[in-house]
């Protein structure tokens, strides 16, 4: 046994380096005030979320007590301007998403659905009166939002196959249909619902309150991933919505797509954060787990897994850094967001698998965290556009040929 190995053999003689998944210091490009916000996010996730999340994940429940605390962090509407939003850059928005997902992807998704998809629909598609009415309380997390697009029989084909209908009736609209997998919908105050108008066949957006008599929601149970996210099956049965609650600038699916383009980058950031958290847990475990007389982090095959994971984390962070810069410059296109979502989620799946492998049998125990990351990576991989659909978007852009059927 060499001198270095002899030192490693006694745990009292071994002081591991700090665990840090930001190997290339991506966050260093932020301003001082932005880094201060990111620090508050980390204090929130590690001090408030981390101590309770395993229990809530195991019980398929949501920790409602964290909502006032996440409001105090000040991350409502990062990247938006005005209406009580936090403001800042899209890079800051992405790094907030990464930090949240680094500890728990479900809490990140709650935030993303609320301030991204739901509030984002109003921000992009509402008129000034609607923005003033709904956005400030949403930015303060006093009113929680959901986003109803996917349907029981229509997922990837929603743009052309949406079955939820709407028709004008005097000063109101009548909505009929169902929406499935809708995060936050079991308790949301503001539900953005997308429906196809009878006659014109154009997609329109509506804000539906949870107390509307034509609106009902059933919680989806027995999920293997995102167990903290409260996904619902929404039923709209003769749901009457006033014209004042129709998003005035949502007149076709092209407007819906604007929201999806903006938020698809957020899901890619979730994928980065999810693998970042798995890597950090695995690295910490490798420096503490002793086998054959020394921490397993001192073995070549374990170091190989760790470096593979770190390479995935760092490459996706760098990719997302550039994507956020394009978004801040206003030149990001659909294919840019789609490539990031497809690539980062594939790498996320790979990274959490390496983490599971490193922990051996202990990797399936919830108390060791990795199992939650492995399961949640499956949801990140599929939602907000599957890998296949995003691949076809990119494929069309680079070849000039559509492979959609």
Automatic annotation (TrEMBL):
GO-annotated molecular function: acyl-CoA dehydrogenase activity; flavin adenine dinucleotide binding
Q: Which cofactor does it need?
A: FAD
UniProt keyword list: FAD, Flavoprotein, Oxidoreductase
What sections of the sequence does the record tag as coiled-coil?
none
- Per the record's keyword annotation, is Manganese included, yes or no? no
Family (UniProt): Belongs to the acyl-CoA dehydrogenase family.
What this protein is called in its record is Glutaryl-CoA dehydrogenase
């Amino acid at each position: 046994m060499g001198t270095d190995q002899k030192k490693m053999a006694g745990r009292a003689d071994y002081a591991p380096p700090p665990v840090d998944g930001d190997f290339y210091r991506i966050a260093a490009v932020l301003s001082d005030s932005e880094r201060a916000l990111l620090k508050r996010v980390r204090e929130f996730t590690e001090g408030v979320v981390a101590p309770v999340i395993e229990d809530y994940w195991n019980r398929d429940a949501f920790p409602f007590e964290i909502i006032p605390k996440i409001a105090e962090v000040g991350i409502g509407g990062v990247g938006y301007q005005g209406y009580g939003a936090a403001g800042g850059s899209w890079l800051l928005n992405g790094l907030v998403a990464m930090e949240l997902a680094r500890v728990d992807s479900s809490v990140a998704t709650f935030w993303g659905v609320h301030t991204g998809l739901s509030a984002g629909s109003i921000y992009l598609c509402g008129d000034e009166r609607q923005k003033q009415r709904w956005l400030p309380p949403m930015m303060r997390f006093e009113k929680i939002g959901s986003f109803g697009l996917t349907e029981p029989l229509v997922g990837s084909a929603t743009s052309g196959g949406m079955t939820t209908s709407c028709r004008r009736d005097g000063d109101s609209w009548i909505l009929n249909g169902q929406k499935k997998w809708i995060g936050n919908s079991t308790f949301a105050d503001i539900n953005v619902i997308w429906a196809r108008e009878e006659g014109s066949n154009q997609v329109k957006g509506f804000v539906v309150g949870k107390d509307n008599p034509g609106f009902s929601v059933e919680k989806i149970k027995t999920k293997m991933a995102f167990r903290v996210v409260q996904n619902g099956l929404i039923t709209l049965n003769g749901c009457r919505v006033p014209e004042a609650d129709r998003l005035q600038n949502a007149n076709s699916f092209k407007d819906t797509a604007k929201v999806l383009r903006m938020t698809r980058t957020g899901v890619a950031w979730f994928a980065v954060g999810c693998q970042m958290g798995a890597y950090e847990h695995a690295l910490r475990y490798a420096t503490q787990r002793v086998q054959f007389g020394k921490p397993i982090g001192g073995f070549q095959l374990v170091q190989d897994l760790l470096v593979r994971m770190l390479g995935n984390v760092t490459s996706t962070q760098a990719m997302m850094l550039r994507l956020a810069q394009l978004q801040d410059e206003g030149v990001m296109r659909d294919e840019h967001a789609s490539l990031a979502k497809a690539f980062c989620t594939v790498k996320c799946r790979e990274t959490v698998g390496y983490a599971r492998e490193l922990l051996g049998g202990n990797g399936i125990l919830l108390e060791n965290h990795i199992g939650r990351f492995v399961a949640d990576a499956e949801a990140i991989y599929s939602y907000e556009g599957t890998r296949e659909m995003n691949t076809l978007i990119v494929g069309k852009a680079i070849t000039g040929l559509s492979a959609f059927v």
